[in-house]
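Sample entry as discussed:
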Amino acid sequence: MSINFISNLPPNAKLWVAKAIAGLIIADGVVSDQELAILRESISFLENMDQVNEIVNMVKSKQKPILEVLKTERKLSCSILMSLAMVALTDDKLSGYETEYFSYIAGKLGFESSYAHLVIKWGKDYIRLNQQKKKLLQYGEKLPPIYINY
């Protein structure tokens, strides 16, 4: 998953998103290689090495970051939350701890938990539809062409 949208954020939002990602990937107590790759990508947008080290140390010690309120345009807040949903769903499962932390994140963006649940549902549907798309593409590639003239 690419999170290049971070590169266009102001510095305070870059840091906030990187911390939110760190919190999401440690929320269930298990950090996968895919999640670490996403974390590496997110902290690569940070210019301050002290901030990078702080986030890395939080992940190593499995200490969830405390996030401040992030006030941005609503459309940007929605995009951030949707991107974070995809991070949360990286390992195809969502624990209660991850769901709780995701709702916490949503609250820091100014959304109620009901909206957070809608975004998670959207993320699950998106992943399911993407998997179906891949299967259809694989199946279609194997079919011989049959051209019909009308």
